[in-house]
Amino acid sequence: MVKPFIPQLVYVEPGALDYPLGKELVTKFEDMGVEVRETTSHNQIRNLPGDTDFQRYRIAKSTLVIGVRKTLKFDTSKPSAEYAIPFVTGCMGHCHYCYLQTTMGSKPYIRTYVNLDDIFEAAENYMKERAPDPTRFEASCTSDVVGVDHLTHTLKKAIEFFGQTEYGKLRFVTKFAHVDHLLDAKHNGRTRFRFSMNDDYIIKTFEPGTSRQNERIEAAGKVAEAGYPLGFIIAPIYLHDGWKQGYKEMFEKLESELSNTAKKDLTFEMIQHRFTKPAKRVIEKNYPMTKLELDESKRKWKWGRYGIGKYVYTDEEQEDIKDTLGSYISTFFPQAKIEYFT
Ligand code: SF4
């Protein structure tokens, strides 16, 4: 079982101490005996302990920076939402294929923002622009926000903020099962709580540092009982020997563990495994022993964002994935909605 995250080292940016949450977090970590260092800006965090890049990468992933979010212009977040809402960046998990390895580059530490009211105000303005159409905000574009929330309760505040809005909806996805503090949040049905789910072999082989499959399923059950609309992102869908059986067992377990309440309003998103050449280089550097299949010659090349091509499964394999997983979903969860396959 993966224990709830506790940072080995905390940095605090001076501006963060002007906010009650900033002060509260510093006191909390000092009381826990975690070393707290001051920094003028997160960009100044250069001398993390460790002799090699490999060691520094690992230490950075257990370092937390308490900071202030300056950019209040939100990125778009297709296909799952209109906007990405920034609460945290970085993650303590060690998934070999994590997209943050390329997007966060040299700053793999976790950074949590304490100026929540500014972020909520910006969200309010985005909602006004689109009203009366609903506006969906995705909170996990730059982190696994649940992984750190038992310490900060930022997400809990966000859930309650969106709970009382007329047009706002919040969504996020997690690979962590530490959800107990979120169960009594006044969500008002306006937050879709999603779990990233995969077959057991894939989680065990490629997702160290995250909650195991059975823990995620158990947490999903609790969340649904607390009345949250529930969803699963099956990602990355990865082909390996026995994948059809692995995914079948996953759906069987989900079906037997979830109550009828959970099944009533359930969504699935499906994302196939893909990689880019730069991502492959970073993965091989950070996880040199990985068993991840990254052979370009076995994949189909596809234009990606920013002109960087990505390698996806061949058309035939994609059809096989859609048919196989689609049939499992319609067998085990006939009422569920498949939002997209990409
Ligand atoms: S849990 Fe998500 S954000 Fe964290 S390392 Fe794994 S893939 Fe990346």
TrEMBL record:
E.C. designation(s): 4.1.99.14
Keywords: 4Fe-4S, DNA damage, DNA repair, DNA-binding, Iron, Iron-sulfur, Lyase, Metal-binding, S-adenosyl-L-methionine, Sporulation
Cofactor: S-adenosyl-L-methionine; [4Fe-4S] cluster
Reaction(s) this enzyme catalyzes, per UniProt: (5R)-5,6-dihydro-5-(thymidin-7-yl)thymidine in DNA = a thymidine dimer in DNA
GO MF entries: 4 iron, 4 sulfur cluster binding; DNA binding; DNA photolyase activity; metal ion binding; S-adenosyl-L-methionine binding
GO CC terms: endospore-forming forespore
Any Pfam family matching the protein: SPL
The UniProt record lists the keyword Chloroplast: no
A GO BP entry: DNA repair
InterPro entries associated with the record: rSAM (IPR007197), SPL (IPR049539), SPL_Bacilli (IPR034560), SPL_firmicutes (IPR023897)
Family from the record: Belongs to the radical SAM superfamily. SPL family.
Quaternary structure and partners: Monomer or homodimer.
Protein task: Involved in repair of UV radiation-induced DNA damage during spore germination. Can repair thymine dimer 5-thyminyl-5,6-dihydrothymine (known as spore photoproduct (SP)) by in situ monomerization of SP to two thymines.
Protein name per the record: Spore photoproduct lyase
Organism: Bacillus salipaludis
